[in-house]
Structures are given as structure tokens and as C-alpha cells.
From TrEMBL:
L-histidine binds at D62, F63, T64, R89, Q103, E107, Y292, Y293. One of its GO terms (cellular component) is cytoplasm. It comes from Litoreibacter albidus. Keywords: Glycosyltransferase, Transferase. Residues 3-167, 208-334 form the Class II Histidinyl-tRNA synthetase (HisRS)-like catalytic core domain. GO terms for molecular function: glycosyltransferase activity. It comes from the Bacteria. This is ATP phosphoribosyltransferase regulatory subunit.
Length: 343
């Protein structure tokens, strides 16, 4: 444990030396904020309790959300923060993972140069882990978001796909369903049916109208569907992955701005001494982590299923918690216990 504490302090010092201000957050977090962000699914991952004054609370499942809230309430910009402490996650029986573990994190709020900020964070984490037997993996959720937003289908279907972007099996099931003609038959609702349950007659009628609209919607364009599947299948070192994605953009032009951002990020990483030829990139990487990542994502993996470090860009989260304002933001966490176990 003493060596874990040493690792924790070493990482904290590294982040403070990079200009980060140390911050602390409460172990108990308001459940309503997390439920608004993640929906009821978060209950399966977090410990929930009730307080007679504070209401429903959750043991802190991560630091990023409370740090973003704190910054959006009164933080100056640009800003850099660091933190350390325990987070709490429910685990499935038998998976051998701890339900509480240490994190040391670093967050950057700066809209002047997003590609440069991404590169700064990645380079800093690379430096922090340079002596550890880990391999860097990266991705970009923003490319997939742009591809879905660019589909020539209804907004309802685009929204459904975007909502399940971080649930690969559900996302794949929706793609499959939307790629064939609908066989759903939506019957008329008799006028004399009594209201039963929590939904009003107006809500039921709205739902029926949505089902009818979806039943009449043509299948996804085969070329666009193939483009999304191709994006998810990209896996190579970063420069070669970018070249493959540029070819896919010929059929899916909507992803071109996100690819420009990826190229700018790789150039910025190179300028900061990162060997981008050794950095892996996968189009599907990062889709099973916290749902707030909406751009660059990265992880450093050893020989265990759980990564030693993870991070990414979460611009949308600052908009959601900013009460009318937002700022580009990127950050990540390192787990000192896992890092020490690799030494």
C-alpha cells in the first residue's frame, strides 16, 4: 500500500507541475444529475443511498462529472484540475474487480486549441506511464457521431442510434432493424378504450404516431450502412487508420470535419514528441466506457482486461451541465493500484 501511495503522489505531482489545481469532490453525489446523464442504467453500476435532507444520493462513480459541475459554476477559463481519491462501482459476481478503487485524474478546460489540448493530455499521460509495460490505444467517438448524424433517414432513427452509441449490442441491433423494410403493423386505437396505467391517452397516441412513421420509413441507405460498419471495423496504427477513414469519407462525407480534427490531433501529438506510428487507433474503441466522451478517447493497457489509464474529450458534458454555456474539455484518469501491480 505504501508503494501505491507513492505512485498516487508521484502522479499528483506530475499533474500539478503541468499547471493543474488540486480539487476535491464529495463522496456522495446527487443521484438526479447522474440519472439525467446516464438514465436508469447507472443504477446497475453505482451504489445508491437516500438521505432525509439531500434526497437520493450515489457514491461517487467517477470524478469528471462533479469536477465539470464545479468548473461550470464558478471556474475561470482556461483551467486545469487534478484530483485523487476513491470511486465506487458495482461489479458482477465473480469478475474479480474491486468495487472501490483509487483514481488520480487530470482535466483541461480550454477552447483555444482542442487538438492541442488532446495532444497535451495524451503526451502527459504517456510521460506518466513511460516506464510501465503498457500499450496506447486511441479512438474518436466524434467520427461515429458525425456518421450517424449524417445518415439520410429520419431524425427519430438518428436519435435512437445516437442514444445507444455506447451500447454496442443495442446499436448493432438497431442498425440491423433499420436496414430492412419494416414488417411492423400498427393497429388503430378504438375510441372507447379506457385509460390504464401511467400513460395518458395523448401519450399513447403520440407513441402510436411515432410507430406508424417508423413503419413507413425506408431502410437505411446500403452505402451509408456499409460506411458505418467500415468505420467500426477500422483498426490500425493511427496514420494508416486515418488514411482508411479518408477513403470511407468518400461514401460518408459527413465525417470529414471529424477526420480533419483527427489529423490535427495527430500532428499536434507528433510535435509533442509522441510517436504516432506506434499509437493504435480503432473506430470502435471507447464505446463501452462512460457515455460522456464524444470525441478523442484513449487508454493505456497492460496485460489485464482493465486499462491502467483512460480518458477523452467530453465537450457535450460541459454543455449539459453548463446551464447555457459550454467549453471544450478533455481529461483522463490513472489507477495507481493497477500501475503499481505492473511494476
Amino acid at each position: 500500500m505504501d508503494r501505491v501511495r507513492e505512485q498516487t503522489e508521484r502522479l499528483s505531482c506530475l499533474f500539478r507541475d503541468a499547471g493543474a489545481v488540486p480539487v476535491e469532490t464529495s463522496v456522495l453525489q446527487p443521484a438526479d444529475t447522474l440519472l439525467d446523464l446516464y438514465g436508469e442504467d447507472i443504477r446497475a453500476r453505482a451504489y445508491v443511498t437516500s438521505d432525509p435532507v439531500l434526497g437520493e444520493q450515489m457514491l461517487r462513480p467517477d470524478f469528471t462529472v462533479p469536477v465539470v459541475q464545479r468548473h461550470m459554476e464558478d471556474g475561470a477559463e482556461p483551467a486545469r484540475y487534478t484530483y485523487q481519491g476513491l470511486v465506487f462501482r458495482k461489479q458482477e459476481a465473480g469478475n474479480g474487480r474491486p468495487s472501490e478503487f483509487l483514481q488520480v485524474g487530470y482535466e483541461v478546460f480550454d477552447g483555444s486549441d482542442p487538438a492541442g489540448a488532446d495532444a497535451d493530455v495524451f503526451a502527459l499521460f504517456s510521460s506518466a506511464l513511460k516506464d510501465a509495460p503498457v500499450k496506447a490505444h486511441t479512438g474518436d467517438i466524434g467520427i461515429l457521431i458525425a456518421a450517424v448524424a449524417g445518415l439520410s433517414t429520419t431524425q427519430r432513427r438518428r436519435s435512437a442510434l445516437l442514444r445507444h452509441l455506447w451500447r454496442p449490442e443495442r446499436f448493432r441491433a438497431l442498425l440491423n432493424r433499420f436496414s430492412v423494410p419494416s414488417t411492423r403493423v400498427v393497429a388503430d386505437i378504438p375510441s372507447d378504450v379506457p385509460e390504464i396505467g401511467l400513460r395518458s391517452a395523448a401519450e399513447v397516441e403520440t407513441r402510436v404516431a411515432a410507430l406508424r412513421e417508423d413503419a413507413k420509413t425506408p431502410p437505411l441507405d446500403p452505402t451509408e450502412l456499409h460506411a458505418i460498419q467500415s468505420i467500426l471495423g477500422v483498426a490500425d496504427v493511427a496514420p494508416k487508420a486515418l488514411a482508411r477513414l479518408r477513403l470511407i469519407a468518400g461514401d460518408m462525407p459527413a465525417i470529414s470535419p471529424a477526420l480533419d480534427q483527427l489529423e490535427a490531433r495527430l500532428n499536434a501529438m507528433s510535435k509533442r514528441g509522441v510517436d504516432v506510428e506506434s499509437v493504435n487507433f480503432a473506430g470502435a474503441y471507447g464505446r463501452t466506457t462512460m457515455e460522456y466522451y464524444d470525441g478523442f478517447v484513449f487508454g493505456f493497457h497492460g496485460d489485464t482486461p482493465v486499462p491502467v489509464a483512460t480518458g477523452g474529450r467530453y465537450d457535450a458534458l460541459t454543455r449539459m451541465l453548463g446551464q447555457g454555456r459550454s467549453i471544450p474539455a478533455v481529461g483522463g484518469v490513472i489507477r495507481p493500484e493497477l500501475l503499481e501491480a505492473l511494476q
